Amino acid sequence: MDIAEFWPQGAPPLEEAKKYIEKYQNKKIILKYGGQVMASDQLSKAFAQDAAVCRRIGIKPLVIHGGGPQIQQKLKALNIQSKFILGLRVTDENVIKIVEEVLLNEINPDLVKTIQQYGAKATPVTVHNNNIFNVIQAMNPELGFVADPEEINVETLLSIVDQNIVPVIAPMGKDAKGQIYNINADTAAGTVANKIKAERLLLMTDVPGVNDKNGNLISKLTVAEAEELIKNETITGGMIPKIKTCISAIKGGVKGVVIIDGRKPHAVLYELCSSEGAGTLIVE
Questions:
Q1: H-helix segments, the chain
Q2: pTM of the model
Q3: For 266-275, how does the pLDDT look when each residue is reduced to its tens digit (9 = 90+)?
Q4: CA angle 7, 66, 164 (to 5 degrees)
Q5: Facing residues of 222 across strands?
Q6: N or C terminus of the chain: which is more exposed, having fewer CB within 10 Å?
């Protein structure tokens, strides 16, 4: 296999990358794709290419996508107000229909197609197709149709991964009555990472990573340090559920979680295959 033939322009130098490729051979890596990154065609393509390249060099990527910006856009166009509680969108009957439409009819099939265009096999994993999330309604009933994953069908996921196919997972699930719920994509990614004992969980964001009180990037944090930053309100808003996901993933056995700056083209390859990384690494 000549990696040079499909290694992307603008990715880390291949000579350097080769030192890291062996480290992640046959390792399962969760790539959570979301934030404003999704609204940029160039960055979306670079992300899909990174996922495909990971698969082609022998890493086992699993992709989980959000859809916040696109959902927000559609709600705005329909004049539906959005309300958030602790960074989570309140989801009533109108909103859940829009979420379903955006995630399952637009983002998911588009991402599957783009990964395939870059030479890797990919398949949708959605609430209508290979559903893996059995859910219970979130602790706060005010959130409406928002749920936490109770059980995950690990066998379905692993059988896809073992066929050298990239699963592209939409964060929605069903409860015992068959009602469809939205799941926070970071929470979904963290839960999957735990259940399949992933080597790494990469959360794409539209910030450089976690900043200290002075706005400087913190390149590495322990779980205890991250918890302290939430307590003293250095970490606020939508970053809180992200960091909590990171912490529970580490406690559940994931070796490292990285909040990466998705605004950097090929951020995934920079994080996995270069010494400079692309964000904040959180470890035990």
A1: 14-21, 41-56, 68-77, 93-100, 108-117, 154-162, 185-195, 223-231, 239-251, 267-273
A2: 0.93
A3: 999 999 999 8
A4: 45
A5: 283
A6: N
